Amino acid sequence: MARAIVYTEFGSPDVLHLMEIPDPVAARGEVVVRIEAAGANPIDAKLRSAKRPSPPITEPRPVGFDGAGVVELLGEGVDDFAVGDRVAIRDAHGTYASAIAISTEKLAKLPDSVTAAEGAAIGIPAGTAYQSLRSLGVTEGDVLLVHGGSGSVGQAAVQFAVAWGATVIATASPARHDQLRELGAIPVAYGEGLLDRVRDAAPGAVTVALDCAGTDEAIETSLALVADRDRIATIVRGPDAASFGIRAFSGGSPVPLTAEELAWRAEALAETIALLDAGDFVIELGPQLPLAEAAQAHELMESGAASGKIILVP
Question: What is the pTM of this model?
Fold first, then answer.
């Protein structure tokens, strides 16, 4: 039997519990992956607590979209992966588990230079950042403002944009400024006076902005600085983004991603792995907890008490 974290009712982290499940079976085009690490993402907690609309629960609901592990079984028609391959997983359904059956379209091979924890930390954060910047057309010569630059998505956005030749200004608490400088950003503290601090820090006009913080301050500052509202986006304020005339790429946005944007999110997994392998990308890892302590992982995530990506280990 395999093991998985599930919930049978919406609520606090305490609704999460570990249960035995039948060993997964690989259908055609799928493989079974033995999970070595699962990434905890805010969306996991939002779905569990019903802060993000979800269908009624009719059976134990699995948790988790990102993970990494080793291929153990191959389904029919699989010839691009082999038993023993190390892989990262994105857009799955139930990576908080000891094993999962998953389509090969949602996998990318991991080189030995990339740890399972790093592989499990890529999917949603890097995918969101990569797609958001592509959608906003970030390129060489842009001056990008990233609100919430010290979070997982923010750090990924900083690194992609710097690699593409943009100048990046990123907001964070002063304690995180040195880290942002190491990633190539110009850090500024959020809070009263943010607009003036960004203007002072920017080498020219701010041309594009990405909100990873979700505060009114972030939205208002972006609107004051960026002339083209089509080049302002939020990944947090989905429901009310349209009222500001800006774009939303998650956070409950009523406007779905286009096929091209979904393809960019998928593309980001292999792109980020290649950068990690080359030593050109950094992932900040946070606490690593046993799978059975998924509730504690969600408590840490929701309280903001831990820095870096929280990882669950079966």
Answer: 0.96
